[in-house]
Amino acid sequence: MAYSYMYMANEETPVNLELNLPKLQFNWQKLLKSSAWLALAGVSVFVASLAPLQQASAEYVRTNGSCLFIRSGPSTANSSVACVPNGTNIGNTGNVRNGFAQITSGPYQGYYVAERWLGTTPGRYRRHSGVGVGGRVLLRPGARGERVRTVQRALGIRVDGVYGSSTASAVRNFQRRNGLLVDGIVGPTTRRALGIN
Predict the structure, then answer these.
(1) Residue 186 phi/psi, 5° resolution?
(2) Nearest to 154 by CA among 174, 172, 179
(3) Rounded Cα–Cα distance for residues 84 and 102 (Å)
(4) Residue of 41, 109, 137, 184 with fewest CB within 10 Å of its CB?
(5) What is the distance between the alpha carbons of residues 126 and 146, in angstroms, rounded to a whole number?
(6) pLDDT per position as a tens digit, 31-87
């Protein structure tokens, strides 16, 4: 008898569960009349624009007309494996050591090139008057103070007021990305590009 009661207590009665969900109807004509197609077109244009951006990030040789040596290591003491002419796309670059950037893609991958002769657009290197980019030197490695802190804030790096190797590297990367002479020195042109008065 006890077993019968347990069986009856655990026995479930059938439940009719009805969900009142709205019926969705998809109307293509209504969709095309709405502004949703504009969003789809915008996404398509954005995706199509990504391919040229990848190419635009490549590095180009920007010399005074002579060729640029591709080297086996990050020094002029290392042997030259090629001499590429001005305007040549050498691929992308990565780490910089001793002023030489390592090439990370393309036919010269793994080799090094002098960073100061690279730019993001093909063209010729333009000699600027004075020392540094664009004239009188304002900041260079070894400098300290509030002007260095201002540059570090503009670059979005750690602010300590000391123009050390990490600040110089960030300045060189900024100069390269903005088509400036890459020397790691903040002169008037680099200051203007950073938006610092």
Answers:
(1) -95, 105
(2) 174
(3) 15
(4) 41
(5) 30
(6) 566 666 666 666 666 656 554 444 435 688 877 667 888 899 888 788 888 888 888
What is the signed CA dihedral for 101, 193, 167, 143, rounded to 10 degrees?
Answer: 120
Q: What stretch of H or E contains 170?
A: helix 165-177
Q: How far apart are CA 179 and CA 100, in angstroms?
A: 17
pTM for the model: 0.41
Indicate whether 163 pLDDT > 90. Answer: yes
DSSP string, 36-79: HHHHHHHHHHHHHHHHHHHHHTSEEE--SSS-EEEESSSSTTSP
How far is the C-alpha of 194 from the C-alpha of 149, rounded, in Å? Answer: 13
Packing angle, helices 165-177 and 146-155, rounded to 10: 50
Tokens standing for 50?
């990504």
8 Å CB contact between 109 and 162: no
